[in-house]
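Bench notes, afternoon.
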Amino acid sequence: MVSDKYSFSSRTDSANIPRRFEEYGKFCGLSPTNARILSLLSEEMVGMVKAILPEFDAVIHAQNENNRFEIILSVDAIIKSKEYDELLKASDGKNSAFGKGLLGKIGDMFVTWAVNLNDNPAPMMSYTGMEMGSGISMVNGFEEWSMKMYLENLEEGRKPEVPDDGLERSIIVNLADDCKMSVKSSSVVMTVVKSFEETGFTSKK
């Protein structure tokens, strides 16, 4: 089952989107608690884009097959060259534009890929960086970064970087099964995956 698609941008309000995904989760047979998790995941996805991109157009929707939910966010970013330096200053490698920890690194990648889409199209690996690049693979002809693969490929004994207080507060990092990112055509696509052990409807593709 596929949800409706919701469009939003840097110029419009997106406050109702999390509630829409909560309603979608309940319609698919999820408990109120698990439907709320879908809402929180979508809220963080929308919030990240709003926080780090000065101008963009986006579409977000979800799909469910056997209670494996995917929330898919496609963003067309409009980043002018003069804005790139400001974004780099906000994401200097130590202080992400979206905070510290793994989600901060994901936000930094999102910005970098969006800028390169506008000014210097190139394979994702060429401007991802060696550490985060360990999560990239080829999927259906496209390069795709996977949070799950990245964490699995960390050197033995290493842990993901976390904020100074030792707590990773990201809903996506803590609750999602995976967070995937890819570049398709002129869009940066983020897909958050979450499975639930409940009986509900399945996608009809």
